[in-house]
Structure formats: structure tokens, C-alpha cells
Amino acid sequence: MHKLTNNHLNKKKIQLLITQLLTAVGENLKRAGLIKTPIRVAKMYKELFGGYEIDPKSVFKVFDSEYYKGLVVVSDINFFSLCEHHLIPFYGKIHIGYAPNEKIIGLSKFTWLIEIFSKRLQLQERLTKQINDTITKYLQQLGVIVYCEAKHLCMNMRGVKNNGCKEKTLVKS
Prior knowledge:
Oligomer: single chain
Low-confidence stretches: none
Number of domains: 2
Order of helices and strands: HHEEEEHEHEHE
CATH topology of the largest domain: GTP Cyclohydrolase I, domain 2
Structural class: alpha+beta
CATH architecture of the largest domain: 2-Layer Sandwich
Radius of gyration: 19 Å
Helix content: 25-40%
CATH superfamily of the largest domain: GTP cyclohydrolase I, C-terminal domain/NADPH-dependent 7-cyano-7-deazaguanine reductase, N-terminal domain
Mean pLDDT: 92
CATH class of the largest domain: Alpha Beta
Largest sheet: 5 strands, mixed
């Protein structure tokens, strides 16, 4: 339905840059495992940056709430994103709760919304806020809360090399 694509991504330029990167770190570009690496990386980036091509508003198909006044919670939605500081992945789970006003949204739409924002260069704090702000703007609910918990490979595999920590962010409106 909402295919993540990136039509503006310059695959040829990415292939050239990856070739230069591999050369800069002293790799042999004729080595069997590396021959197609620049092509594979360009294809991967097309997928990883697909969120830039979709307007988040496009996922908001709403239904009458039928006077439901309780809290709706969708939890444990997995996501993967790239840290804009190091271009290294961070990943985790996002939990969304909202109190319907007059409209509800199809639950799978939350997953699409998370995919759109996580398929961009990100900071966890911004990701959490973008999801909250978008739900607030387009659903106009009585209240929205977004909780994100993630592991950042920039902390796990470089720098302090702490494998046990998670960052947790929460935004409510």
C-alpha cells in the first residue's frame, strides 16, 4: 500500500563513493567478496532512506470511533534507523497510545508511520517527537503518547562500547 521507495537517490554516485571508501581503508576492490559491494550498498540505501519519499499524512485513513472512550495502545512495534551522527544503526521498539476523540486509525497505520520516519537519517529524540506530532496533527485525539526504547550501535560497537544500555524517549501531547 505505502511502498517505501526513494526515486531521488543517486545510486551511481553512492556506488562511486563506496568504491572510494573501500579504497581509502586499503581494501582490494578485486577481491571476490567486494566486487559487487558498491552495487549492493546502493540498493540497500535505497531501502534504508525510503522514508523521504512518503508524506506521513498518506497513512491516515480514519474510521468513526463508535464512541469508544478508552485508551488505544499499540506496543512493541519494531524499527530500525540510521543515526545521523555516525551513519550507524539504532533499533528498538516503539509503543503508541492515544485516547480517541471521534476518529480512530487502522492499527497497521502506526507501523507505516514509524517506517516512514525511521527510514530517514534520525535521532531517537526527533523520531519519537515526529511520530507524536504527526498523530496529534492528523488524528486530533484527546491525547497521544509515544514511548521509544532503542539500542544504538554507535554506543555498542564504538566509543564507550557499552552493550547493555538503551536510550528511552517519551513524548506526550
